[in-house]
Design goal:
142 residues, 7 strands
Length: 142
């Protein structure tokens, strides 16, 4: 099996019972499920550089609109029917930018998601629906 290093971003706003997390669905592929921003760490790329790059590519959110709260977990994920191990580095960030309830963003980064449109929205952390590919595996740590 080969190892692929990944980052995931739990981007939240609000506090306590009011805390919400940013999620998205693929506009033309809703079967991909509800997800959080994240992706593959490129060769020789630093963890935090990969984190902010993936967030910007998938959401349009600039680094200056985020406050890093910390790394919440590092786990391995074994997707079914694939001969790969995903090393997941999961981070928590607070959104401090201009308020938007929901928006669409076209991915522009040259990766496998290039040209796709992602539909973003905020959902309550305490009532979070199940995320695709077990991306919610460390949600209790935020």
């Amino acid at each position: 099996m080969r190892l692929k290093r990944k980052v995931l971003a739990y981007i939240t706003k609000g506090e306590g019972a009011e805390r919400q997390i940013l999620v998205f669905e693929q506009k033309d592929n809703p079967d991909a499920g509800l997800q959080v921003p994240g992706g593959t760490i490129e060769k020789d790329e630093l963890l935090l550089d990969a984190l902010y790059r993936e967030i910007e590519e998938e959401t349009g959110i600039q680094r200056s609109n985020l406050e890093l709260k910390g790394k919440v977990n590092k786990t391995n994920y074994f997707p079914e029917h694939k001969h790969v191990i995903y090393e997941r580095n999961i981070f928590h960030l607070a959104y401090i930018g201009e308020e938007h309830a929901k928006w669409e963003h076209r991915v522009d980064g040259g990766g496998k998601d290039d040209g796709m449109t992602f539909c973003h929205r905020w959902v309550s952390v305490k009532n979070l629906p199940e995320l695709a590919a077990n991306q919610d595996q460390a949600i209790e740590f935020i």
